[in-house]
Amino acid sequence: MRYRYYYCEKTSERLIDYLTVESIKYNVTEGISAGKYACPALVSFNIWADDKNAEQHMQALNEISRFGPTKYAEYSSRDYSKATYLMMRPKSQSVEIVNPDEAFQYSCQWINSVGMHLRKHEKQIGPVTISKEPDIRKSTAFWSEDTGFSVFFASKPVVELVEAHNLVGVLFKNVKLRKGNDSVNIFQMTSPNIIMQDCIELKNLKMVETCRICGKEQFFLDHAEQLHVDFSKVPIQSDLYVTEDIFGNGEPEPLFIVSQKFYQLLNENKLARNVVFTPVMDVSKQHAL
């Protein structure tokens, strides 16, 4: 694993001169000078933490750049192949759930100072109905991020792959369409095997908030943080786990964790389209030392 610092700044002669002199590769996006969508020209570039001049460059850029960089963790092919478990997230293609009141029950509800009804910590009590099926020719995994729920959907080929290889702990639920019939192309993917909060190391994560009703904590996992799980506390060897809903800004979300076997099968069968994987750190071995 190595860290990458990504900069995206308004172009300036001083910044361009520095990047040129230091032989730092950069890209310039031409600006739009007029109209509704006017924006300045931008320059973007990366600084790698393991570069011998990284500290020197970042100190200089602190004085030149207007905004700080975004830190990313970058993983090698070896990192992926050696990971026992990996976090799986769809990149895009959100699916709209149109029946949240029927499909979910909330344990925390209140009215804020301006009279808005707020609710959190939902439990699914029925099948979800979606507005329309996404295009499964372009993607094999989808989710409902834009509705405030983190429901994970998978295409029929993923269901067939799981069944053919007898993967453990992977469940699929039917998804209804607006007309009331079940979709034959999209299924909700979930697992009965939950990774509880006390199995997750949270000391390096930023706490977003504490629920005013139940006191449940919520954390933010950014691009530079690797999820640390003590799998010695997780009793079942499963090919899919779902964490408690304790992550993200806004509505708390679960994270979906797949086994190396599931990860390899998805890649080998070209069913990892629109999906991002991140190796999960198993800290149980560290604790045993």
Short précis:
By secondary structure, the chain is of the alpha+beta class. It is 18% helix and 35% strand.
Annotation, overall tally of beta strands: 20
| Rg, Å, rounded | 22 Å
Mean pLDDT: 89
Report helical residue fraction: 10-25%
Major sheet size, sense and barrel closure: 5 strands, mixed
Coarse shape = globular
Order of helices and strands: EHEEHEHEHEEEEEHEEEEEEEEHEEH
Describe the structure.
The protein is of the alpha+beta class. Helix content is 18%, strand content 35%. The chain is built from seven helices and 20 strands. It has helices at residues 13-21, 54-64, 77-82, 100-103, 156-164, 260-268, 284-288; strands at 2-10, 26-29, 42-48, 70-74, 85-90, 104-111, 117-124, 129-130, 141-143, 152-155, 171-177, 182-190, 194-195, 206-210, 217-220, 228-229, 240-243, 256-259, 275-279, 281-282. A hairpin with a 6-residue loop joins β14 (206-210) and β15 (217-220). The strands form six sheets. Strands 13-17-18-5-19 form a five-stranded mixed sheet. The model has no long low-confidence stretch (mean pLDDT 89).
